[in-house]
Design a protein that fits this description.
Elements: E1 6-11, E2 14-19, H1 24-37, H2 39-42, E3 46-51, H3 59-71, E4 75-81, E5 94-98, E6 104-109, E7 117-120, E8 122-127, E9 135-138, E10 142-148, E11 151-154, E12 164-169, E13 173-176, E14 179-181, E15 194-199, E16 202-207, H4 208-214, H5 219-224
Parallel strand pairs: 2-3, 3-4, 6-8, 7-9, 8-10, 9-11, 10-12, 11-13
Antiparallel strand pairs: 1-2, 5-6, 12-15, 13-14, 15-16
Helix pairs in contact: 1-3
């Protein structure tokens, strides 16, 4: 397996894991091998993933990478394309699909800091962290491929079937339609990706695995591929 399929270097913001052109699945295996071979080097670091511009970021592939990093005690900080710093600007949010009910899907690759706000008239996929003091809202579902630590409001216009999902769900406040959840216990740390939805007694938070078992085609898979109904 060519070692140049994957480049790892340090930076002031964490380690940069750069995937080169070629077979991406082989590079993921190489990443796993490197983390297992040098656990002390990676332990407790934050990772910035950089992909070639033409690579399709399939959600199953991303989940596998996140799981590999998690096992190595590495936090996913950010995902970028090789196209450069434009991915970090507010203007990078864009509609990439129209679904059958005319709900639009907005894909944002950006890390939100305190004071930042994003509001979309459709479903929102955000690749990056939502830090405390930042707010995101969507007419439909919200998927955060990172840490959700700020405020999130899904189903903004009254859709109580909307859901909120994050790799690390520890929001200051969650809102779905007119339902509001209280802030989580500071002592409790999410054990993995979680999904928030409206239940009989308000907003419920369940593990990604539980929802995936109950739903043969989880909402985030339909959402990413423009088929949420």
């Amino acid at each position: 397996m060519p070692a140049n399929q994957l480049r790892i270097r340090g930076s002031k913001n964490g380690i940069i894991i750069q995937f080169e052109e070629g077979e991406i699945t082989q590079a993921v295996v190489l990443l796993e091998d490197k983390l297992k071979a040098n656990p002390e080097f990676f332990l407790g670091t934050e990772a910035i993933l950089v992909f070639p511009a033409e690579i399709n970021l399939d959600e199953d592939l991303l989940l596998r990478i996140v799981q590999i990093l998690s096992l190595g005690k590495v936090k996913l900080r950010e995902i970028r394309r090789e196209s450069g710093p434009d991915l970090l600007k507010a203007e990078t949010d864009k509609a990439i699909a129209d679904v059958s009910n005319e709900r639009r899907l907005f894909w944002v690759e950006r890390r939100l800091r305190s004071g930042d706000k994003i509001s979309v008239d459709g479903d929102l996929v955000l690749i990056g962290d939502v830090n405390p003091g930042a707010e995101i809202s969507a007419k439909g579902n919200i998927l955060v491929w990172g840490s959700l630590l700020g405020v999130a409001h899904a189903g903004r216009e009254g859709d109580d079937k909307a859901r909120i999902m994050a790799l690390r769900l520890k929001a200051t406040q969650l809102r779905i339609a007119g339902h509001i959840s209280r802030a989580p216990d500071e002592s409790l740390e999410p054990q993995g990706p979680e999904v928030a939805r409206v239940g009989m007694d308000g907003i419920l938070i369940e593990t990604w695995e539980k929802v995936a078992k109950e739903d043969p085609q989880p909402f985030w898979r339909r959402l990413i591929h423009g088929r949420e109904v």
